[in-house]
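hey so i finally got around to running the thing on that chain from the lab meeting. sorry it took forever, my laptop kept dying and i had to restart like 3 times. anyway pasting the input first so we r on the same page abt which one it is
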Amino acid sequence: MRHYTPYAALGSNDFAPEITRDGVEGLTVVGLLGLMDPPRPEAAHTVKECRRAGMRFFMVTGDFGLTASAIGRQIGIITTAGEPDGLSDVTKLMNDLLADNKRLPSCRDPVNRVQKSLVLQGRDLLLLTDKHWDIVTRYEEIIFARTTPEQKLGIVNAFRTRDNVVAVTGDGVNDAPALKAADVGIAVVTGSDVAIEAADLVLMGNFDSIIGGIRLGRLVFQNLQKVIAYLLPAGSWSEAWPVVLNVFLGVPLPLSSFLMIIICCFTDLAPCLSLIMEKEEFDLLTLPPRHHKKDHLINLKIYAQAYGFIGMMETILAHVMFFFYMWRYAHIPPSGLFLAFEKYTDGYYGYTQDQLNHFNAVGQSVYFVTVVILQWGNLLSVRNKRLSILEADPIRKQRRNPWIVVGCIVAFLIAIFVTEVKGIQNLFGTGSVPVELWVIPLPLALGILMMDEIRKLLVRTFPKGPIARASW
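ok and heres what got predicted. didnt touch it at all, straight out
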């Protein structure tokens, strides 16, 4: 054992240099002790999958730069062969790119990023200006080493202010400010209570459950779009046009307000809930991240699909069935229904007011039943944006969804109950639909499915054509 007596004045800052200069002389090496804190076994796979999903994966740590770089290479955060860039390289690149004071394009697009790796330490971050950060945030691979909690928070804010969506993972108390400031704070269940409280999400499993969260998040988003695309044709479009024809063209109301409510709240409910159980059409991790300011849950393409395509077909076919019933059973041709207005009363075409009311009640029920059945074709078509029903039917194991069948049966039973139960007829003015008018909509629903199959075929055949660009 060696004893050393310092000679520097007490209370001074000279002890560390003194020990470095004098205290390590004349020592004999008797052994070396190494400590290893390896990364999580699933970390490399998580980094790889997140990259495949179009995300950048950075490391922010309190370790030394060399240690952080070694770990970064081990798990795939740094993939370049050469030495990573440093502060001097960032400064040089800043002078080159910002020499003419032009505004740099957004770094959300991978084309506008710096395809290199970068390692910065805490002392480097103290020297960064806003212009430096404009360059730093463009690097594809970054490791921030020897950082303080305040610097972690500054890193998050720097990326967020430059139109990036930031997710932060952490488990320690010093991670809490960054977790709170991020768009999505992700804590580990084994972490500190402070980190868990500051986070938005808590990983209950391993670190690679992040991948499952990304995949399920994208699946939920797509399934919600399918639910909306399913609901709009019958829930609004096919209900709006009967009112338009009644008010402006004098046609007796083809669909009552009571039946509109039944469609919205009952017959469409079970089928649309079954869409929530849909599996992914393809590997969703191959999709680029959504633009959080532009890629909304509903967009013009969904409106075009729901209103201009499926909704228009359903509306036309339902009105055709209404006019067909009035012509076949009431012997009133379509020309007699248009511009009827106040003429549709006692004595019109030789009928009493009660008879006319009965015909209209049954005609409204025919319209209602037609819409319910046509929605089956819409339901089968909206399950897939690109794939054919032959590739992704709800029966085979790969895309099996038995809830589709259950939803259709529930809607059918509700339609029977609303139109055939005597008490409902007397109370809400519905009527029994002739059997043949329950059958005719079945091939019409198949026709809607086939029309959308043609659209999907054109999209797959001509992926850059006008129909593909307009399709949802």
